[in-house]
UniProtKB/TrEMBL annotation:
This is Uncharacterized protein. InterPro entries: Homeodomain-like_sf (IPR009057), Myb_dom (IPR017930), Myb_TF_plants (IPR015495), SANT/Myb (IPR001005). Residues 229-245 have a biased composition (Polar residues). SUPFAM superfamilies: Homeodomain-like. PANTHER family: MYB FAMILY TRANSCRIPTION FACTOR, TRANSCRIPTION FACTOR MYB30. Keywords: DNA-binding, Nucleus, Repeat, Transcription, Transcription regulation. Residues 156-184, 223-258 are annotated as: Disordered.
DNA sequence: AATATGCACAACCGCCAAAGA
DNA sequence: TTCTTTGGCGGTTGTGCATAT
């Protein structure tokens, strides 16, 4: 409400983050936790606005993020969720804890949008039938849940994967490092080393390649150590920081996390996507699982 | 070999809603 | 109750690399 953008203050740096800035930010979050972003620039000396710090953390530095190489199952899930939720990237990301909303959004816009609209599939999403306006889709889920469920069923039936294909690991391309990964590789290694120490602090981190499970576990342990996870859930915000998603949880169900899992299980109880990729089977109810 | 075009992704911008004073 | 502050979300843009011409 007339509030000037935080970045309007003078001397705020913009553009790509440097490895040094990343290290500073990671160090800060390691010490103070991923909140109180307004204090980050002053506390760290970073010439970045608080919003930029938060974005950098949630979209890039946050542990447990998987980057690039979306699997077929992830792609199917995105298509299905998009048909159901519309462009609610954050809500979609809550089903895919290893992916950020920004990643999903980018993947949709660059890979799926054209293909999806070209084939005519997902016409409902295109027409916005299920892409309710802001603040309304949660209510739709609550009041029109049967219709929503039916829509999801239809979406699933369109792309239903045969059981044999579900367990089959499609041959992945030889993991060509993406441009960004390649250009940032050396820098990312430094960050990874720091994060490695971080996860060790949590007690279950493994040097080198750490599974997402162990990563999230150790991160969870870290925040338990800090004793701050409760404050996170106390604000009514989800670990992923999804204010609006948590609103859906509150509106549709009794409690924050577990009830959302129940809704999710209910919506997806045909078993599509369950267990195979660790996507929607992730216990979202644990506020410490991801942040 | 040089240039044009397309693609992928990181980051920014504006708006909105929740929380607090 | 109203206003301000802060965090979060979705849309959009900018930049660098790859591929085509």
């Amino acid at each position: 409400m007339g509030r000037p953008p935080c970045c309007e203050k003078g001397g705020v740096k913009k553009g790509p983050w440097t490895p040094e800035e990343d290290l500073v930010l990671v160090s800060y979050v390691q010490d103070h936790g991923p909140w109180n972003w307004r204090a980050v620039p002053t506390s760290t000396g970073l010439m970045r606005c608080s919003k930029s710090c938060r974005l950098r953390w949630t979209n890039y530095l946050r542990p447990g993020i998987k980057r690039g190489n979306f699997s077929n199952q992830e792609e199917k899930l995105i298509i299905q969720l998009q048909a159901l939720l519309g462009n609610r990237w954050a809500a979609m990301a809550s089903y895919m804890p290893e992916r950020t909303d920004n990643d999903i959004k980018n993947y949709w816009n660059t890979h799926l949008k054209k293909k999806f609209t070209k084939t005519g599939a997902g016409a409902e999403a295109k027409s916005g039938r299920w892409a309710a306006p802001k603040g309304q889709w949660e209510r739709r889920l609550q009041t029109d849940i049967h219709t929503a469920r039916q829509a999801l069923r239809e979406a699933l039936s369109l792309d239903r994967v045969p059981p044999s294909a579900k367990t089959e690991q499609l041959p992945q391309p030889p993991a060509p490092a993406s441009q960004a990964q390649a250009t940032y590789a050396s820098s990312a290694e430094n960050i990874a080393r720091l994060l490695e120490c971080w996860t060790h602090r949590g007690g279950s981190g493994t040097a080198g390649k750490v599974s997402s499970e162990s990563r999230s576990t150790s991160v969870s342990a870290f925040f338990n150590d800090e004793g701050v996870s409760a404050s996170n859930s106390g604000t009514g915000r989800t670990p992923a920081g999804n204010t609006r998603t948590s609103k859906a949880e509150d509106a549709g169900t009794a409690g924050p996390g577990p009830s959302f899992s129940m809704l999710e299980s209910w919506l997806l109880d045909d078993g599509v996507g369950h267990g195979d990729t660790g996507l929607v089977s992730v216990p979202l109810g644990d506020p410490c699982e991801f942040f």
